[in-house]
Every structure is written in C-alpha cells, then in structure tokens.
Amino acid sequence: QRTKMTLQCRILKAATLYSFVTKSFAFHASPKALLNSFPVSRLDGGGGVSRCLSSLPTEEPGKKELPSDYPNIDRIIPALSAIRKACRITMLLQPNTVLSSISGITKSDTSPVTIGDFAAQAIVLNILNEAFDGQDIFVAEEGSSNLVSDKGDLSNEILDVFKKCGLGEIISDADDLKRSIDLGQTYTSDGKLQKSVIEKQELYVGSDGKKRTWCLDPIDGTRGFLRGKREGGQYCIALALMEDGVPTIGILACPNLPSSTSDDNYEWLEDETEANNILTRGCIFVASRGGGCYQLPLFAQMDIATNNGDESTVGANKINVTQNDGKGSVPLNQARFCIGVEKYGDPEGKVSAIAKKIHGELDELGDILSKYTRRMDSQVKYGVAARGGAEIITRLPKKSYVEWIWDHAAGRVVIEEAGGLQTDVNGDLINYGKGAKMDPDVDGILISSGGLFHKQLLKAYKEQEAER
C-alpha cells in the first residue's frame, strides 16, 4: 500500500484547495459517431468525486517553482503554463478503463489519435506561439487534416472540451483550432524541415545566434492513454526545446504517475479516487541544460500551498538517477528495466537477451524477471529513471523503423540532467538536428542511469548481437 508519511499534513495545509473538488461536475464522455471510437468513461470513475477541471489551481508557476537562476527560466515559464492547461484536457478525457469511448481516428500507420491529442497540441502551440511572438519554430506530431473525414468533423467536439476545461477563450473557433494544430506541421513526409521554415529560422535567430525549435508530442503513449487511468495507463505530454539541433529543455507532464519518488504502485489502488489522490498522483519533470532536473507537482498552486522549504524554490524537488558508480543501493546485476507494455518496441526479443546478460537468468517464460521489470507506456519511463525508479530503458524497434524526435527529445534532457545517459546502440549521442526524424542509421536507443550502468548495458547489447 502506498506510503502516506506526509499525506495527512499536506492535506491539512492544502485544505483550501479542496473547494474545487466539491464543485464537481459529471462529464460524460459518451460515444459520438464522428469517427472511429476509442475507450473512455466518465471522469468520476463510477461514483467517485470528479475533478472540476475548469476550477483547478492556476497553472501560472512564476519563478518561485524553480531556482531564480535556472537556465532558460523565461522560456520554461510559458511552456509550463501551456502544458498544465493541456493536462486539464487530457485528465478530462483519459478513460478510467478500456470499456467506454472517446472520439478519434486510426492513422495510416495504424497508430491511434484521439481528440485529446489534437486538443492538447492546439493549446500548447497556440500559447507558445503567442508567448514568443510567432518567432519560434514548432515540430509536432498531429495535423489538422486528420480532423475531418467522410464520417464527420472532430472540431466542434474539441471546442466543446476547451469550454469544459475553462479554455474556450484561447481557441474559440474551428479555423483557429486548425491553425494552432498546424503550427507544428513544419516538415515534409520524410521528416525534413520545409524550406520556408528553414528561412524563418535564419530570420529569427536568437540574440545568442542559436536557432530554436520546439518539439511536441501532445499525448506520448496514446495506447497507454486509452488503456485507462485505473488500469495503469501511463502517458505524458512531452515538450522539448532544441537549440541548433541540441535538446536543451525537456518537460514531461505525467498526470497519472504517482508523485512520490519512492512510490512503486503505478496502478490505481482499490480505494483510490480522483478526490483522494490529488496530492499523490500527477507530476511534471522539468530539465534545462546545465541546471539539473526537477520534479514539480502537476498544478502549481497546490504545491505553493504545501511548501515547507525555501521560497525561492517552492515545490522544486531536484532529482537524480540511481547512483551509477557501482557503490550504490542497486547493484549492477540487479538493474531494473523500465520497458514498454507492448512488444512492438522489441520485436526481436533483444531486451530479454540483454537482461539475461545482466541478471544471469530469465523467468520460466523467457522474459525479464518480474522483480527487475517495470512496464509502462511513453516517455514517462524517462522520468521514472531520472528519479531513481529504474536504471535501464531500451528502444529497439524493427530495423526499418525511423524514430520521430518528439518520442525522445524531452526525455533526453530529463535523463541527462538527472545524471543519466541516452545514446544509440553504439554508445554515440543522437543527432536531433536532422528534422522531425532521427537519422535512419540509428538502430536503437539505449537509456540508463549512466556510469557503470551504461557501460554494462552497451556491453550486454553487443554480446547478444554477436550471438545472433
């Protein structure tokens, strides 16, 4: 059962914040036959108290959440505000289980996309574009062309969601919605930046001479999102800033992840509801090159009300990976793997082969021993490893697959600023300056707590490759 060592005192200090819970509404995400339907259910989880998302605490973090001299703080503040607004949307729409429905489509590559993906992308890009006077470049996953088909138009449903979340004044009509979504459609089908975008980068180069590009995955881990919050469905909103092709800011907002850095219970407990887990579930990982990695609460005002520390860093919890010199609490041969729920991330069974090299054995089904395994979707895995909840993450898809940068850019900054490392399978840093896609020569991605853990991981990978 989840550790509750500070929960009671935090609840007492945050009692005034619970008024928004009592102003609950029952939002029924009933099926609409616009396009294909995906599972979702009522926000209240079958009798629990709904979160009143239009009355959630302010997303405006100010400079008190992070150190005043934190690198890139003036860009991080509007980014956090945008992402927290997007979290209102995804929290409203994420299913509790896999047994009800949310509107969306299946894209040509068979991947699902929901109204939550479109809505979150539109809000984040709209806010950032306004914040930076239209001068920054954006690369994002979704395009407005998928909003409309012969089965209907999702635009009005998304606009209705904005209103329910108290965001209707930001994007109020279908044209603005589509323009906002398509701010991120700056690349061609092969992932290269469009010529006009490159020219814009040259025109609006920063005072430091750097070209800036924001990279967004509005719902990273859509399959986890659809799996449902009560069935351990993890997802995140992943945002990265790249300067001259190098990721320098990474933000991962994880609404369904327990906020305790020592919490091993990623699935909902039997007595858990949206009302009683306000302070125990949901967090944001923020990292900036040279400034370290911090874990923040999902919504800023909650944290300000419960702070006991220095006012200059209200709620900021600096995190680090597991000690990686072989002298820490986790021995190298007991490294924990944080891997995807589904097998498509490792179609050839390489991860199990690597684990056998490290642990010395597998279970009776030929899989990683359960005590060394955590399974979840999305870049949430990077956050878990960054705070010491796992030591190894792998991404080893089929040879023909070329990775999109939004699936790993934010995670790279988070893990590196926490003391870990992300490389390709040869141990080289990955080039994020090729456009929306990585170099096709990247055969896989290895992520770890760094140090001896990464050396061991590279060695195990090469050994199992040699045996194939």
Automatic annotation (TrEMBL):
Stored InterPro entries: Inositol_monoP_metal-BS, Inositol_monoP_superfamily, Inositol_monophosphatase-like, Inositol_monophosphatase_CS
Q: Name one GO molecular function term.
A: metal ion binding
Gene Ontology BP annotations: phosphatidylinositol phosphate biosynthetic process; sulfate assimilation
Q: Mind telling me which Gene3D superfamilies this protein's record contains?
A: 3.40.190.80, Fructose-1,6-Bisphosphatase, subunit A, domain 1 (3.30.540.10)
The record's annotation in Pfam families points to: Inositol_P
Q: Which residues bind Mg(2+) 2?
A: 220
The entry's Mg(2+) 1-binding residues are: 141, 217, 219, 407
Q: Which cofactor does it need?
A: Mg(2+)
Enzyme nomenclature, EC number: 3.1.3.7
Is Endoplasmic reticulum among the key words of this record?
Answer: no
Q: Which SUPFAM superfamilies match?
A: Carbohydrate phosphatase
Tell me which family the UniProt entry assigns to this protein: Belongs to the inositol monophosphatase superfamily.
Protein's recorded name: 3'(2'),5'-bisphosphate nucleotidase
**Provenance organism:** Chaetoceros debilis
- State the organism's lineage: Eukaryota, Sar, Stramenopiles, Ochrophyta, Bacillariophyta
